[in-house]
Predict the structure.
Amino acid sequence: MVSTLTVTPAGTKPSSVRPPKRRRGAARRRPIDWLMLAFGIVVALLIIAPFYLIVVNSFKSPTDYSNGGPLAFPTQFYTDGIVAFWERVNFPEKVWNSIFISGMVAVLAVLISMLNAFAIGIGRVRGRSWVVLLFLLANLLPQEALLYPLYYMFKQVGLYDNVWSVIIIFTVIQAAFGTYLLSAVYGTFPKEILEAASIDGASRWQILWRVIFPISRPTLSVLLIFFFIWTWNEFLIPLTFLVSNANQTVPVAISVLQGDRLMDVTTTSASALLGLIPTLLFFLIFQRTLTRGITAGAVK
């Protein structure tokens, strides 16, 4: 009788030899997956389209724009529009005004929001729900309703046409939103940590800066970035309260240039591009901080 032997590699059990499994990523996509992918591509194109028009038309001469239209690539690298806007509005001065106003508002609004939320969310003041509701209503109030009373008030105190008037206004507006958000966050703060700090002899001021501030730093960083960008893009209040050329911000300078007789589409695109670059750089620098802050509460 002839017996048949099965030969297996050394160190390998016969039962461990199995056909390779199909990888999860190789699974066939469903129609809904392709539909969501197509929807994402369409949304991305809609977002990219304005940036494409700004960049392309910023380096296009008026003649080239008239011949090829707004969608065509420029036939030559034209920078006179950028130079004209830079010199006409003194762009470095406007950038500094926007950076100073937005930076001061972001820092002061975050600080005031943290102090208010500490008193409301952890201090447990009386009527906490009504106080938070008032801060919420303050965010719903349109800016147009504030123009005349604020104009009259700053005229009386001598701060009209002063950057500090805009800083005060936006600090209050942004702090109202920050207080509403942080009050909800601090309201769920673990009481065990606060009680342990009190037992160790920490005062309320020490609890705020040595316990609460380090733990809530990611959320505060997100608020700081948002407050800076929101204030940078504000237009109506700076246009109303900063009438002199030396105090204007970048959005106001771009809008004021619209009424000039020498204005053209390419110069307008160049001004929009120069106004976009600082905020884009700010976002890229703090992108990692923003991502950490948003995802900080997702994993405990």
About this structure: The chain is about 70% helix and 0% strand.
